[in-house]
Write a structure and sequence with these properties.
Elements (H helix, E strand, L loop, with lengths): L2 E5 L5 H10 L3 E6 L3 H4 L9 E3 L2 H10 L6 H22 L5 E5 L4 H9 L3 E5 L5 H15 L8 H13 L2 E4 L2 H9 L7 E3 L20 E6 L8 H10 L5 E6 L6 H5 L7 E5 L3 H9 L3 E4 L8 H8 L4 E4 L14 E4 L4 H13 L1 H18 L2 H16 L2
Parallel strand pairs: 1-2, 1-4, 2-3, 4-5, 5-6, 6-7, 8-9, 8-11, 9-10, 11-12, 12-13
Length: 384
Amino acid sequence: MEIVQAVFGVFHHFELAHELRRRGHLRKIYSSWPWARVKREGLPRELVGTFPYFHGTDYVLNRTRFYPAAVSERMRRWNALAFDEWTRRVIPGCDAFIGISGAGLLTGKLVQERGGKFICDRGSTHQIFQERMMREEEKRWGVEGMAEPAHIGRREEAIYAVADVITVPSTVAKRSFVAMGVAEEKVRVIPYGVRLDKFMKTGSAPEDGFEVLFAGQVSLRKGIPYLLEAFARLQCAGKRLTVVGSVMPGMEEVLRGLPTDGVEFTGSLPQEELIARMGRSHVLMLPSVEEGLALVQAQAMACELPVIATEATGAEDLFSDGVEGFILRDRDVDGLAGRLQDLADDRGLRARMGAAAKMRVESVGGWESYGDKWEGLLHELTGK
């Protein structure tokens, strides 16, 4: 069984590529990042194809002050179209092609014409569902331009229709596809793994305060306003919220109207520093309003952190409410604040949940378990 993958950048696809290679199935993986970046993922050069011209240029220009958002959006559109055209030209014969959502419309059709299968791997909810959620958030917080342009949704829906199977990382993501009219049997749930060899408890949280950690993009999608409002209600001496992640365009205006006392915004941090921060924290809080499966939850659990998360994060596929953490409704500031207060007030509860989180994530498994599930699906689809 020979498998080809295509991904914008890296995401979790290189973890999957390692698992497929280990099982003797990986024919090629294509990325829109340059080799200078993807070589860090540890695959042999002959197994990796790169098409960095639009994505790499857009990334570099976005690090400057004078790059208009409209031009960046156009570059991302060109990247998706050109990357698909290129993979269609160069893809070798294969039994199945796995394309990250937004990629592979033409390539997937070609693979199907050759007798292979096309799998669309979607990392979050249905694109149109996502756009609707984001427009609700824009209206609520008085900003515009954070939802994706309409043409992205049209392309995604065309890909969903063509694909033999759509894979998603969580039950909540699958429900969004079913709600949008996609046949339930076409959508398969394969939760992500976690690097248990890297993520582990490396330090201790202070006893004279209460450290709350958030890790992810500072965006409406990640529920930042609800995070800050819930933290502001916490009654606790020495409380601090550390927000790790880049601030998305347009969020500065939203943040100016939100409480930020006791909040530290660090920007993006290397993985090693994030692990260290987890070791010095009492709880991870993730109040997303739209997500697929937030991988940082499993990473925090491996570091023995209880997790307070919303249903949108895919938490139900990782842990049980009230055992390893708490799962709240989306946008439920009262609930988030209440569960945060419970953990701040009860050291024993934190310890029990942290220990349970570690045991649970170890039972779920790492990327090897993820690879096993993918291999089973691919055997089923290809008959090989």
